[in-house]
Design brief:
Blueprint lengths: L2 H33 L4 H28 L4 H10 L6 H11 L11 H20 L23 H32 L2 H24 L10 H19 L6 H32 L8 H31 L5 H13 L3 H16 L3 E8 L2 E8 L9 E2 L5 H8 L3 E5 L4 E6 L2
Helix pairs in contact: 1-2, 1-8, 2-3, 2-4, 4-5, 4-6, 5-6, 6-7, 7-8, 9-10, 11-12
Length: 418
Amino acid sequence: MDSRAAGSVWDNQRWLFAAGTTLLFCAPGGLIVTHRPANPIGWLLSATGLIAGVTGAAGGYGTYAVDAPGRILALWAASVLQLLVLAPVPLLFLLFLLFPDGRPPSRWWWSVGWLTAAATAGLAIGLALYPGPLQLGADPANPPNPFGIAGTQDLMWTLFFLDGALLLMAAALALASVSDRFQRARGVERQQLKWFLYGAVALILTLLFGLVPAVEGITAIPALAGFGVFTTCVAVAILRHRLYDIDLLITRTLVFGLLTAAFTAVYLAIVVGIGTLLGSRGESNLLLSIVATALIAVAFQPARDRSRWLANRLVYGKRASPYEVLSAFSQAMAGASTDDSLLRMARLVVEATGAVKATVWLRLGEVLQAQASWPQAGPLPEPIPLEGRGVEETLAMAQPRSRTFRSDTRTTCSGRSR
């Protein structure tokens, strides 16, 4: 491929990446800003998307400047604008430090933000002063950097290496801050962090996949897919939309991943491994392919059940999964008295959610009356008058640390998280 064709492919990738990143960050960021303007997470996402858009425009302007090397001011502007590609780095690291409430786990973690800023500034200085061609487009014949200092190549490469190492250290510390917060989080915050970690893992995997040589013209797609999953998970977590569905999503992802890995291994072992022993010399063997497909079809149902059991244990631990809870609750309701049913309801809520305590309330006119509680320690809570308020609002005021859900128009259950 000649330099012009390479430059055309690179330009298409750049525009696709810049436009896609702008949309995928600004849309969720704007949604968060609209509903949670005091939370800096939405502003960080929006700023990252806007910088990506400006970077794309700057790249186009830089290409124009390269094509017109006689325009010194244009080259100077292009050499400055190419530094914008580094701007999202501290913003993303700050996002990891501040998620989900806009504050780091402790004041010590602010040092990670300063380390990120220092490393990014060092890289920007090195890129700005490197005495080589402008890093715009794929053409090696780009005009020289007008701010480059001759004879400093070795110094700049040393600066790149040191600042790159500091940036990797800051990345590891930013991930450690999320881990530290997750270990101490309870209730809603823990669910928010599950969404965040799910999106972060998807982003890392897609970025690693993008490093694998791909079909020409689609190398930006894996990164954009990762950005989309990540920003969507962040928006769901901050806005608390179907927040408690994350356990089910993680379970299904694990089941799909385990099945895919297992069947891929079986297929390769039969078709490639046995084929090599039989001396197929890399040629496809129809009989082995049929045998592998038949074996996978027979083993699919047992493998899916085993994968589901393993995924449930990884996600829910020793406590019951939602399916086990629903099954046990339906059996309990079938042949139990009213008082016993409500007690079983409270117990199953504790077992399913890991709450410290669950209380079942019954609405009697304009008063909420506690009917059952699990664990059975001490007397039931006192009745709570509604006083014109809704049931959820009344329980939120009386028990601010609890989460409430309705089982029917008269019965309500509240649980206090650990």
